[in-house]
TrEMBL record:
PANTHER family the record matches: F-BOX PROTEIN PP2-A13-LIKE, F-BOX PROTEIN PP2-A15
UniProt domain F-box: residue ranges: 21-67
UniProt organism field: Anisodus acutangulus
PROSITE patterns: FBOX (PS50181)
Protein name: F-box domain-containing protein
Pfam families: PP2
CDD domains: F-box_AtSKIP3-like
Amino acid sequence: MGASASSLDTTQYGLNNRSLKFKLEDIPEACIALVLSYFDPPDICKLARINWAFHAASSADFIWESKLPSNYRYILEELLGSSVAGMRKKDIFAKLSGPNSFDSGKKEIWIDKNNGGVFLAICSKGMTITGIDDRRYWNHISTEESRFQTVAYLQQMWWLEVDGDLEFQFPAGTYSLFFRLQLGRVTKRLGRRVCNSDHVHGWDVKPVQFQLTTSNGQRAISRCYLDNVGIWIHHHVGDFVVEDPTIVTKLKFSLTQIDCTHTKGGLCVDSVFVCPISLGKELRSFDSLIVMTK
């Protein structure tokens, strides 16, 4: 019976083998777009190269609207001074997935290319550092190892205090805040990375303290001894929760070591980094791996 069924003459139904061969181009564009909406942005871009039908479907606004953070209008209009009028959602995603500076270049914002999570970075020049204008203690040094191309370098001081703040309309979720620090001053010698640790001292006597507070009363404090000579580490300050994405959250954060019984020096302060907690866990795991393999 199976054999007779398989040899059924399709011509009696007005069909032939040629008409049964469909091509990808024959799939309606709306159907392709609906399927693409279930993929992550990098995969959508890869599939868009299959043919013209996939390329056209991949530009549908409803696909990229779902990939953008809920506050994308706030980011573009309030922070970056751009208008979303007339912009395709795909173009908005492309713009925000790259680094975008604001506040006179002291801060940067971008979104994760895989899931649209929001990242923020504040450079050392965007924070208040005690004694920063006295070159006996601090210097701003240029380096390719910072996304801002400059870091604050502490030669020696009794009192360490770094304060900063940020006002931002976060999408709902839980976020982590980090200080990116390194002990020792890195230079290039004959094309190789060399760390000068001559000024590194005092960090094993007392721990540094990190602190985070939010405008709705959340607070986090953490302490640790610094020992990451020649290695950039994202030191976790704490986490905070955003429940209402329509209001601006105000953050205050600090790094201190104000025990004046000893001096400390040789510290590079690069930036403060804010990201969704899930991506923050990946960042901490990556830093731990670097330390273990160093």
